[in-house]
Amino acid sequence: MANSISMVNRVSTAVKALFKKYPMASNAVVYGTLITGAEFTQQTVTKKLLVKPPHQEPIDTGSLGRYAIMGTLIYPNVLYIWYQWLDSRYVGTATKTIVKKLLLDQFVLTPPLLCAFFIIMSAMERKADIFEECRKKMIPTFQMSCMFWLPAQTLNFVFVPPVARVVYVGTCAFIWVNILVWIKRQQY
């Protein structure tokens, strides 16, 4: 038992050192893994678990790749810089500060992130009109994001230390991307 605890402590120390030395890269790996995992989860449920053989479909690795790009190269870097700025500009956990952070996060950052999601994914999917999906799905997606992210971000800004914000958001994003992937698959 003591060896197990010692090993967990060594791993924990090593992970903390990686996040301290390479914060953007570490956040990108964790966030990208969670986002890609959310797409994999959705595909597994919709293509394997909810259908019976022989109607099961193979996992779409191209889609997994697109989510890996969004989740590793784009979103975590934007979020890392955003939260650094937000936390340096609005310090503390006073109610007024939290409300400012929530409003800025939801109404300044979220709309461009959602637009980027639909437009970049459509471009990577080589759709003829890369803006069509954004036009059709932006408003209902934003409304749903308010219901999900405002409570999630309240917890983030009140309880999560700044160094762990991107990982926390990545963990919440695993749930959110399952919702987003479901919305993306809907016909509007």
From TrEMBL:
<keyword id="KW-0472">Membrane</keyword>
<keyword id="KW-0812">Transmembrane</keyword>
<feature type="transmembrane region" description="Helical">
    <location>
        <begin position="103"/>
        <end position="121"/>
    </location>
</feature>
<dbReference type="InterPro" id="IPR007248">
    <property type="entry name" value="Mpv17_PMP22"/>
</dbReference>
<dbReference type="GO" id="GO:0005739">
    <property type="term" value="C:mitochondrion"/>
</dbReference>
<comment type="similarity">
    <text>Belongs to the peroxisomal membrane protein PXMP2/4 family.</text>
</comment>
<feature type="transmembrane region" description="Helical">
    <location>
        <begin position="166"/>
        <end position="183"/>
    </location>
</feature>
<protein>
    <recommendedName>
        <fullName>Mpv17-like protein</fullName>
    </recommendedName>
</protein>
<feature type="transmembrane region" description="Helical">
    <location>
        <begin position="64"/>
        <end position="83"/>
    </location>
</feature>
<dbReference type="GO" id="GO:0016020">
    <property type="term" value="C:membrane"/>
</dbReference>
<dbReference type="Pfam" id="PF04117">
    <property type="entry name" value="Mpv17_PMP22"/>
</dbReference>
<feature type="transmembrane region" description="Helical">
    <location>
        <begin position="142"/>
        <end position="160"/>
    </location>
</feature>
<keyword id="KW-1133">Transmembrane helix</keyword>
